[in-house]
Amino acid sequence: MAYLLGVDTGGTYTDAVVLDEGTDTVVASAKALTSRPDLTLGVSAAIDAAIADAGIDPSQIAMVSLSTTLATNALVEGQGGRVALVFIGFDPAELGRAGLSDALRGDPVIAMAGGHSHAGGEIAPLDLGALAKAVRDLDTGITGFAVAASFATRNAAHEEAARDLIRDMTGKPVTCSHELSSALGGPKRALTAVLNARLIGMIDGLISACEDHLARIGVDARLMVVRGDGALVSAAVAREKPIETILSGPAASIAGACWLTGERNALVSDIGGTTTDVCLLQDGRPKIDPQGARVGPYRTMVEAVAMRTTGLGGDSEVHVVDGLDGGLWLGPRRLMPISLAARDHPLLVHDVLDRCLANGVPPADGGQFAMPLFTVVPTGLDPREETVAKRLFAGPARVSEAAVTRVEYPALLRLVARGFVMIAGVTPSDASHVLGRVDAWDTQAAIKAMTLFGRRRKGSGDRLATGPQQMAQMVIDQLTHQTVDCLLQAAFAEDGWSQPDAVAAHPLTLAGMNRHSGVVQVDVRLGVPVIGLGASASAYYGAVGNRLNTRMVLPAHAGVANAIGAVVGQVAMHAHGTVTSPGAGIFMVHLPSGVQQFATADDALSALEAALHIKAAESARDAGVADARFTTVRDIKQVDVAGQSMFIEATVKVTAQGRPRIAIG
Predict the structure, then answer these.
(1) Would you list the DSSP string of 92-142?
(2) Comparing 364 with 170, which gets the higher pLDDT?
(3) Nearest to 223 by CA among 623, 621, 655
(4) Distance of alpha carbon 189 from its chain centroid, rounded?
(5) 3-state SS class at 432
(6) Are strands 294-295 and 298-299 parallel, antiparallel or unpaired?
(7) Directed axis angle between helix 39-54 and helix 186-217, to 10°?
(8) Over 60: is that where the pLDDT of 663 sits?
(9) FRET partner for 585 with CA separation of 20 to 30 A, picked from 151, 167, 455, 551?
(10) Which residues contact residue 237 at a Cβ distance below 8 angstroms, ignoring those fewer than 6 apart?
């Protein structure tokens, strides 16, 4: 009998689920806190608990599949390694396009002459000597490189030469833009390559943690990873292209939602610790975003489900809005809940909270804590960052004691952005503890922290709340409000409204949500049910369904839907190519092996499809698919000139799809 093991690593929890492949049923599931910086601890705990609960021998596991929100969370929160961009053949002004300069966050750029034309011809030679000098001059804190050259999708020679030189010199990972997308649009390709390079260390660490533990306990099975479009890829592909795991967790949750509920048409809303992910399910399938995955402020060139990701989760930071009313806002930064910090460090957390409460005045640092995620002081820090890091090397500290001067606080935030430190503070998870909806960590610490937060002042001078229960309910109500707004925006966007955010906030929409009844009657409701997923969905989503006047579906195993979705998907390997026509009777096929010329469009397209078919088939075989199904999509651009059709360009996509072999070894 074969069993399938699904693992999902999120910002707060790592989930594991065991499915019986023969009966298609959930045998066991388990959760463990995601451990940082060593992800092995959380992965191991979840896997071991699920296998023990299933009562099976690890050798009976026939396939393991992994999904994760780590890549998504990192981009939403602005985290990841330091990268250097090699920018070949572009005007420096193009760094300001597609959000590229924002994504770089001050990381170095090596701008060089070179690149190719639309037809694949070299515009200027690439000076490898100058590139080598520039690489040597970089500081040691660089963790990876992104290489983007002009029209590299027409001729990748300069990107490949730069990649080979950098790998030989540094031994560090290098991402070429043409390896991630066959589309034009250099700055957007460069953005995608930068984000990929930033994520490589994180995703490699997760895959290694999973592989190492599976080997230790005797699981001899293929490890697959969920891609952002819901398909499965091999661990090797995910290591090389971690950007493709953007929205991996949400994509797996869609598959899990279908499997758990049988619903064919619904909005799926998956709340995690960091984000809420919303996707429309139509006829049992999610849509693929034709413009590429969008996460936070970034639009990438990665194919993924059409998902709206918002920085709103159970561990979102709680902010007080300026103004007389002093309302709240949640996110986008994720904090460690105070109740969790107190579970692990009770003496520190309770002592600080007790002193703050006795003082009567809310402290300047909000009673927050800096939690180091490193076991050795990181390298490549500036002097202020190093000072703060050395202070935290002894262990967690109150924020005001970790950053003792005003100029050190930005250094602390930079350590947070790079994933070296996490801030602990008040979150919706703490509010749930106060209201008795959750009892996982230290409820008394949550009550103290919520009491302290409620003493903050509105613009009117009044306190936010009179007690911890009132403050906690305000936080939960705000989470409901922002979740409803997120779902409304997604619904209006699917219906084709040009400004879904404005429509969702329109007074008539709000009146309809309130079922206004007077001379004018207004009623607004969702036309499809909402499937609520996530460990905390049952604690929050009942009120969301009531507010949206729709049916709320909260399935059994909703808390491990991502892990379930990870093992019910299929492999889908894509191969892309282009045919261009620089002149009459000349048709150029742009292949990874080089450019080939043909006399007719039909010959060029046939040659391209044959090459892509071979490439997709090889990728599918490497991923474990023995009997793949193939689909081919042509997109031919032509114009009419003097009554005759003129070929401009064609793109071809060949997909090899199928289930990976369920076999040991």
Answers:
(1) GGGGGSTTHHHHHTT--EEEES--B-TTS-BSS---HHHHHHHHHTS-TTE
(2) 170
(3) 623
(4) 18
(5) helix
(6) antiparallel
(7) 50
(8) no
(9) 151
(10) 225, 244, 619, 622, 623
Q: How far apart are CA 569 and CA 257, in angstroms?
A: 12
For residue 664, pLDDT over 50 is answered with no
Phi, then psi, of 328 in degrees rounded to 5:
-115, 160
Under DSSP, the state recorded for 445 is H
Helices (H), 495-550: 500-504, 507-513, 537-547
Q: How far apart are CA 387 and CA 396, in angstroms?
A: 15
- pLDDT over threshold 80, residue 293: no
**Amino acid present at 434:** V
SS3 call for 301: coil
Contact by Cβ (8 Å): 664, 58: no
pLDDT in tens, 561-595: 888 888 877 777 788 888 988 888 899 898 767 78
According to the model, what pLDDT value does residue 660 have? 66
CA torsion through residues 261, 264, 268, 272, sign = positive
Q: What six digits make up the tokens of 203?
A: 């995703």
pLDDT digits (tens, 9 = 90+) for 642-659: 777 788 888 898 888 776
The rounded distance, in Å, linking the Cα atoms of 221 and 203 is 20
Helix H, strand E, coil C: the string for 576-627 is: EEEEEEEECCEEEEEECCEEEEECCHHHHHHHHHHHHHHHHHHHHHHCCCCC
- Stated pTM of the model: 0.72
**CATH 3.30.420.40 boundaries in the chain:** 1-246
What does DSSP say about strands 629-641 and 109-112: parallel, antiparallel, or unpaired? unpaired
Is residue 321 within 8 A of residue 328, CB to CB? The reply is: yes
Phi first, then psi: what are they for 535, rounded to 5°? Answer: -60, -30
The CA distances from residue 222 to 63, 209, 210, 219, in Å, are 5, 15, 12, 9
Closest to 289 (Cα-Cα) out of 490, 9, 558, 532: 490
Helix (H, G, I), strand (E, B) or coil at 146: strand
Reading across the β-sheet that carries 174-176, which strands appear in turn?
A: 109-112, 82-88, 142-149, 174-176
In whole angstroms, give the CA distance from residue 311 to residue 331. 6
DSSP 424: E
Residue type, 510: L
661 — pLDDT class (breaks 50, 70, 90): low
Q: Report the DSSP beta bridge partners of residue 295.
A: 298
Q: What are the strands, taking DSSP E only, across 113-219?
A: 142-149, 174-176
Q: Does domain 1-246 have CATH number 3.30.420.40?
A: yes
Return phi, psi of residue 5, to 5°.
-115, 120
Q: What angle do CA 389, 14, 209 make, to 5 degrees?
A: 70
CA gap 338, 350 in Å, rounded:
10
Enter the tokens of residue 147. Answer: 């290489």
Average of per-residue pLDDT across 343-352: 96
Taking CA atoms, 409 is separated from 370, 388, 399, 417, in Å, by 11, 9, 8, 12
Both tokens of 308, joined, read: 């709206």
pLDDT single digits (tens) 539-569: 889 899 999 999 999 998 888 888 888 887 7
Give CA–CA dist 50/36, Å, rounded. 21
How far is Cα 617 from Cα 632, in angstroms, rounded to an integer?
12
